[in-house]
Amino acid sequence: MKVILKENIENLGHIGDIVKVAPGYARNYLLPKGFALEATTKNAKALDHAKKHLEYKKNKVLEQARVLAAKIEGLALNLSHQAGEEGKLFGAVTNMELAEQMKALGIEIDRKKIILAEPIKHLGEFTATVKIHPEVNATLKVTVSKA
């Protein structure tokens, strides 16, 4: 089934793209959530007319993502964890904990968008990548100290 995307969807496409998806995915997810329109000739003509609006929305979303990225780049999370004598943590710092810390600071990011190369299991300074937008990534500084 062909649909016209109204939102950026990771691993599928950008606003205004016409993509082919499984009928169930379109019927049960994309269309009810308002993420896409069915690609009929009427909707395709309406898309041509709405392209300018979609381009404006795309640029606006990209600009908001860049502002959020700058805000995240300026952050430095400080976490206290129990650790052994050699600096090894009891447990690990995960992307879920980082998302909770950021939410406490007023920045709400889905934990799935915070990418750690591997769970943090030692004391020290680390970086995590935050995927805000398909074109915008931010680097988050994380310092883990002994509690």
Q: Assign the CATH topology of the largest domain.
A: Ribosomal Protein L9, domain 2
The main pleated sheet reads as: 4 strands, mixed
Average residue-wise pLDDT: 89
So what's the CATH class of the largest domain? Alpha Beta
Strand content: 25-35%
Structural class: alpha+beta
Characterize the overall form.
Answer: elongated
Helix and strand sequence: EEHEHEEHEEEE
Number of strands: 9
CATH superfamily of the largest domain: Ribosomal protein L9, C-terminal domain
The percent of residues in helical segments reads 25-40%
Distance between the termini: 55 Å
CATH architecture of the largest domain: Roll
The radius of gyration over CA amounts to 20 Å
Topology:
Layout: E1 2-5, E2 18-20, H1 23-33, E3 36-38, H2 41-73, E4 76-81, E5 88-93, H3 95-104, E6 114-115, E7 120-122, E8 124-133, E9 136-146
Quickly describe the structure:
The chain has 147 residues and is α+β, with helices and mostly antiparallel strands. It has three helices and nine strands, in the order ββαβαββαββββ. The protein has helices at 23-33, 41-73, 95-104, and strands at residues 2-5, 18-20, 36-38, 76-81, 88-93, 114-115, 120-122, 124-133, 136-146.
List its salient traits.
three-stranded antiparallel β-sheet, 147 residues, alpha+beta, Ribosomal Protein L9, domain 1, single chain, 2 domains
Written account of the structure:
The protein is an alpha+beta fold. It folds into 2 domains: 2-67, Ribosomal Protein L9, domain 1 (3-Layer(aba) Sandwich), CATH 3.40.5; 74-146, Roll (Ribosomal Protein L9, domain 2). It has 3 helices and 9 strands. The chain has helices at 23-33, 41-73, 95-104, and strands spanning 2-5, 18-20, 36-38, 76-81, 88-93, 114-115, 120-122, 124-133, 136-146. It is elongated and about 70 Å long. The termini are far apart. The model has no long low-confidence stretch (mean pLDDT 89).
